[in-house]
């Protein structure tokens, strides 16, 4: 994909949060006009004031009516609701519809039921920041990061090319795969970690009821392991509830590994414990080296 | 405890790694002489070269013979072996023996069997750095951090006062408690998190065998949750194997919480899922606020 091939006459960004705001910033020079759509007046005012968008509205129909490209940057269930209930009748034929929802199966299914003529591709950029909100927007948020693209029944070869050009314009690295495969992979690296983090905090909180000193002694290890638990509950609940089957599969695999390690510990088989822990250590060291050298550039 | 009351004529630091080196730096002005003991010639040479110690030896007996205070800064099992097998006959009567091992029950038991006259207190500072080794030593490593002190059968009131004065000299915050209570608390905030981290990486590695793309998509959430898995396997194996019962108890509590959350997810009870995740989020937010405002100053 040649860099510089992405352009848009009327780009609509639906959802002016960290992800949508960063998209608008990154694509500012590639689009003749950018329309921001959000129910939140403060977010719209901020986007306008900072010149991130040329116009803003809280009316989805108005916001996307003229667009040749629409990017849905909302929580998973909100995206799904827009795709299922409303947006199909608002879009012009040949418009490219892309989303950035964290689970892809349900959204891509819904996209596949859109009117013929709409070009729809599921998307999921593997990036973010601890602080959400448009004020933390960053044109470099997507740069060097994986951006998954999932085909739908409304993905024509031309739609695929336009989506790839958009990913390229963001400086992101495209990964094309089926929605099911995506959902299974993110269950392992995003959803299972979140569940473990929240459940760890719940367990420590239970300890804290009997002995509150547990909170005072907690240090850097707990800090890292509990960070994901502080994510938005509504957002994460939506993500988990739209990926239940893959999450349940990963939990089953995790439980097997945990039971193995515990059996080794309880039977005081130090050799076996080391044989379990060593490959995990090596896998993490290998990954972090690639992650820091490869993606963060 | 009045600041400035801690002094030592001959301080011996056994184990010249990050923790021992940082102790030597922090107590440099409080001790007339500091002796470093380590089997590793490079660590000894570095400590001497940097003026962290006045003398260094690989001979435990020589190193501690003249000491009025000895601090054992080695992995748990190495500390236990020294206390059980050798150090009792090397120490002068009235010497204060302190350690910084990560589990306290076995070490405090062993300390309780030392010759009468030796003053022994179990210790565990809740601090550290990702990079071990004496070269990362930092006089401020203990400052503002919790330092647990556990009584043994060889802890006289005078020994307790001297240990508290030492903790004060480090700028650390003393927490006095029985060894069993300590081991139970750290099982929740240190050992369980490590086990979850290693088991998460093992689970992702299993996925990676079927679909290596999982490593390429992994991002910041996985990064945090996998960090502990990269810790030294021997060190962590020793810690777990000297705290098996508390770890098994915490794993049982964790499994109950995990099963509850999974049942809510699988039965698609979004309300219950939110009721589980919300208190975990709030507990983490409360903790991080206190941790960053209180301890990190």
Topology:
The structure is a homodimer of 297-residue chains.
Chain A: E1 8-14, H1 18-26, E2 31-37, H2 41-49, E3 55-57, H3 60-64, E4 69-72, H4 76-90, E5 96-99, H5 105-112, E6 119-125, E7 146-151, H6 157-169, E8 173-176, H7 179-210, H8 213-217, H9 220-226, H10 233-241, H11 244-266, H12 270-295
Parallel strand pairs in A: 1-2, 1-4, 2-3, 4-5, 5-6, 7-8
Antiparallel strand pairs in A: 6-7
Helix pairs in contact in A: 4-5, 7-11
Name the descriptors.
elongated, Rossmann fold, homodimer, 6-phosphogluconate dehydrogenase C-terminal fold, 2 domains
Strand portion of chain A: 5-15%
Query: What's the CATH H-level homologous superfamily of the largest domain in chain A?
Result: NAD(P)-binding Rossmann-like Domain
Cα radius of gyration of chain A in angstroms? 21 Å
- Which CATH top level class of the largest domain in chain A fits? Alpha Beta
Distance between the termini of chain A: 20 Å
The average pLDDT of chain A is 95
Main interface: chain pair and counts: A-B, 89 and 89 residues
Looking at CATH, which topology of the largest domain in chain A would you report? Rossmann fold
- Flag low-confidence runs of chain A: none
As laid out across the biggest beta sheet of chain A, the strand order is 3-2-1-4-5-6-7-8
Order of helices and strands of chain A: EHEHEHEHEHEEHEHHHHHH
State the shape of chain A. elongated
Q: Into which percent range does the helicity of residues of chain A fall?
A: 40-55%
In the residues of chain A, how many domains can be counted?
A: 2
The tally of beta strands of chain A, per DSSP, is 8
Question: Which structural class matches the secondary elements of chain A?
Answer: alpha/beta
